[in-house]
Amino acid sequence: MQSINDRSRDIGDFFAEADDSVLICRCEEITKGEIRRAVHDGMFTLTEIRRYLRTGMGLCQGQSCGNLVKKIVAKELGVSANSLEPVFSRAPMRPVEMKILANERGV
Amino acid sequence: MTMRIENHPILGDFEKGRLVKFYCDNRELQGYEGEPVAAALRAAGILVHRHTKKNAAPRGIFCAIGRCTDCVMVIDGKANIRTCVTPLVEGMQVQTQYGTAAKSECKQGELA
Amino acid sequence: MKRYDLIVVGAGPSGLSAAIEAAKYGLNVAVFDENTRPGGQLFKQVHKFFGSKEHKAKIRGFQIGQDLLAEAKALGVEVILNATVTGLFQDKEITVKIADAICHYKADSIIVATGAAENTVPFAGWTLPGVMGAGAAQTLMNLHGIKPGNKILMLGSGNVGLVVGYQLLQAGCELAALVDASPKVGGYGVHAAKLARAGVPFFLSHTIVQAKGNDHVTGVEIAQVDENWKVIPASKKYFEVDTICMAVGLSPMAQLINMAGAKMETNPQKGGCVPISNAYGETSLAGVFVAGDVAGVEEASSAMIEGHIAGVSAAAYLGFIGKEEQISRYKDLESSLCKLRQGMFSLENRGKVPSTTEEGYATANNLLYQGFCTEEEVLRFPGTTKQVGVHAVIECLQNIPCNPCQEACARHCIKIGEKITSLPSVDEEKTCSGCGMCVASCSGQAIFLVDESYADGYASVTMPYEFLPLPQVGEIGWALDRSGEAVCKTEVVQVKTSPVFDHTNLLTIKVPVDKAMSARFFKGGVFHAIHK
Asked: Does pTM surpass 0.90?
């Protein structure tokens, strides 16, 4: 895990690919190329990618793009997708309006 | 050609509520009370539910179970309503969503 | 705050089964589900399940769902719908969004049965309306009675792609093609065969290049891939379709159990990020159990058994069941689960291409690589015999856990034996009555009745038929072979429908005797257009 976070690790240059324009995060409309470029900008963990690009922070909360982003980042880093630390799961599990969160019952 | 399945070889006829009027972008349509709004729209041949904020790209039904939020529209003035899990109510006002609002909410040529 | 002995999150097959098991031991159980309808994916399954009687074989998925619900209600289980569990906290407290409030509940034990969600595969144009998950198409068709489109391309040849593909045909849609990047069919051969003989073309070793259209799908371009998964440009093909379905696997929805602090692992064989659990559904959190797809993507039959196991574990954890009874019940359930996890498609055999079946028959490679078996392959398997008069021909050539055919025959013509993954064989010594029960009972629709002495120079072939409109006696049409090619003109001589067949009609056609072992489907004048 520590070797992945080592920013001094050389992961090679960024080379444009034919499918860089394909959308990966449907909610926030982020392309494959943007994700790949973010890794080369120094975002080596999924949490950083999420905060940098907003992939997985849209309405669906990463339901559609989570696995796809993981694979793209892993490939760019040259590591297996399974070795990347998953993003944290926090309550609420689904988007909830503030007024509902503030309306607590049965505590 | 209707998109509604009549007499399915295994399921027979689908139990539906009563036929009611509703509106999509001020166009009068018909659907069955209680069925998902997305189903009623699909039956009416409407495929585009919204246009995205960044690229103004058309979106419609994707997961059909309320998970992906691609099918959201403005319903009775409220934005981001998942049409695939929202039951149709008589007189509902459904509007194509542009970004995060209906077109009438946007300034000319601008997305909300 | 309301307290329960057990709270189950998710009212799908595993959640309901867990609730039923626990309630039987006297636990006060509540099940929360975020959907309007319970049953998870079960209510969308219109096909007959596999396995054996104890696994509810031969019964259609939605019927199993209805039975589970009724059983749960009868045992006093509270099933709360439109209730999204937004968090699982310390001391087994949950927060639930119900209407416009967040409600708190507590339990002495929790079972998380939140299931799995569909994967996606991005390609150019995949965000266009008309591109959807296979599950989405299934929801529209089987729950809401709406055709997802008129002309569909299905991506994925696993069981989901094959089964949903067939359901699209039943709903009256046209299936233009079934595409998979793999060189072989991922799901059961019998599921592929149903599509192939209906004329659906398979494009294995192919991928989607682009979905075309302005504001919705109007066409799709596919192309062949080489051994390195690279597109071969010269092989591009275009189909005019209005819908593209993706059946590319499922991933567990383990976010809730993750936030609760359970130890997780990334296990590709289980479908991705799953809670670490044992055979009893126990996680690293005391009193919190898991069952079903969230613990590892499998299928509904195994999910239900896992649900029962977790129910036993919860009951034992709270002292509602003694040690001896617990061990005995585990034993029965594990044995039942074991039977399902065998055969060609079991976890341990996944990815392997066996050269022979368990019995030593050379693998039907055409079935595996084309989606339909050749006549030559069928002839060398034990389901085919040379008999005078009407007899069953069983075209089930893979070791899969399934045996309703054996139980269906009152004259014991069909044998599978103790091991339910064994190939079915037909006993030449027994005399077939021609009742057709086996044809109707085969969940894979792989059994036919053939009578080569039907009339002078003619044979009769009886096939399972689950489409409407049902052909009429006397109707003239075409007999198609296993690949969907027309072999001869044919006449319908009998149509049998019976409640005991459960919506599988028996269609008998008359063909020249030399076509008896090739004619396997009927295409009448009113059947919707089939493309080859």
From this structure: yes
